[in-house]
């Protein structure tokens, strides 16, 4: 294949490095995150008495923010990454989805931990429940959109590879 695969090779390289760093941060955060109890709503009792609540969610949030940056850089890189409208849609969906989903981890790491440390679930349940619902709302906005983009990207790349295979191989 001749020529450059990307409109902006520097953005593609930077995006790859940023997405690799994002993967490490999110993986570290999720390794130490306990399994959620009680469905979608955050249960303070799971992490309430540990100093790990904040750092776990900050690592996840940092990884999510880097994921937004990485996918945005991939959109800027263009070329083979966005050669068809479906690929551009997939990278865009991942960017926007992670923007919302980063809010989940940020609110969880900085706001919910703060509220639980000050007894808000018992003393001010309305405030705690409001932030809990905000977490759920941001999650429902971000996670499906991110997963749609990721799945679309994977499906289009598998279809492309299958179409490029020579007959009889």
From TrEMBL:
Keywords: Membrane, Transmembrane, Transmembrane helix. The chain crosses the membrane at residues 12-32, 52-76, 88-115, 135-156. The keyword Membrane applies. It comes from the Bacteria. This is DUF1772 domain-containing protein. It comes from Eiseniibacteriota bacterium.
